[in-house]
């Protein structure tokens, strides 16, 4: 009697398990594996691209901010000391030798010599519109101005003389400086067209006795200074601005925004109205940056006139009365970057990273598809190898390994559910004679015929299994038996069908040995040994018959009674 090796239970799915419906859930299909893998990797890629895009956009935004800050600092440098030489000129002219002799003797002829020096100074500087000499009552004694051709024109007292509008400036002490608000030139009570930005600086004329005898006034053409500030914004994305201390624009990106304190129709063109949050910050600190819905602002508070003399400035907005306190002239320089420039700057990385993302997603899709195809092919090969390792190549049935694994699982299941099953060993009678006389092809046909008979008699609802466990030896598991007679009926039918085959006058029959679980034994090795012994008894008794390992339990006898 041959012995059988006992195999440990396996939880992996076998070819037989798949055929009988007892295996684990099938693995993901290639399509679902592709979708899950691609979704995960594409999500990671998209997150990385978004982070790169955000970093790039932030970098460009910081560059624009830095450009605005550098621009406003450049404007501040342009304004430094630009009015110092005007102060020097007005002080020099107030101490003119001819003027002092005129104050001492009142010689009117000296006015022409004074005027000629004014004209020379006007012609030399190129930045003055007028130089005027006023007496103690504010009346003009000498005026030199540029005509339409840019030639100095001299006007002496009594011939078209005008009166100084800010009489409070006549109260200045020696070496004190008066500076007006930066506004537009007014001629004959009307604003000159085209606009001429003017800044007026004055200092008192003091005679030898220390008395205030009048003023020397220089009208500084501030338009060129504004043009230089405007040039700062050329070639970079910033828009330079200059705002007076009341929030009115002296320089702005749009001409309609300027000079709101002098033009009634532009009265609302001021920082407090257009950009209130920026103005609040400007009033709080001397320099800073503010980001609004309109864009980014960088600002500095500047003092364009810094001299060692007391400076009295006119009120902001073009007021006519001089400040009584010593108060420096103050403006605000600003650099503005519109929001549209930030959006335009962000467009380039958006397009580039977007196209790169699409390309990478396409490459990723191809790579994942290739990986999944490789995995699926490898899995199919492994499954094929596993199937071949557990399947008989000739009959397509479970081989001995798969049959014993399934028998072990069946013992566990039957014990768990308190059920009975039969392990049957079937050996063919007369097979060797056909194989020897008719050849191996005929023998193979016999084996396939027997396999078809066995498979055809399996009860699919009970999980029965047939397998080839030797050369002409087959195994059969009959699960969930209500009683031994059910097994006998199935096996007798199988025996008759096998015996009915005709092989050119030769016949094959089956000797079948049966061991019942748990009636005969509770372990696989014992069941095989008992079934094998029963099969040999069937052969000894005349072959072509079914033989049970022990006496079948009587009706009503518990199935769990073990064989003694």
UniProtKB/TrEMBL annotation:
InterPro entries associated with the record: Diguanylate_Cyclase, GGDEF_dom, Nucleotide_cyclase, Rev_trsase/Diguanyl_cyclase, Sensor-like_sf, VP0354-like_sensor_dom
Keyword Manganese: no
Region described as Disordered: 1-23
EC identifiers of the protein: 2.7.7.65
Any one Gene Ontology molecular-function term assigned to this protein's record: diguanylate cyclase activity
Domain GGDEF: 419-551
KW Repeat (keyword) present: no
Essential cofactor(s): Mg(2+)
PANTHER family (UniProt xref): DIGUANYLATE CYCLASE DGCM-RELATED (PTHR45138:SF9), REGULATORY COMPONENTS OF SENSORY TRANSDUCTION SYSTEM (PTHR45138)
Name of the protein: diguanylate cyclase
Source species of the chain: Marichromatium gracile
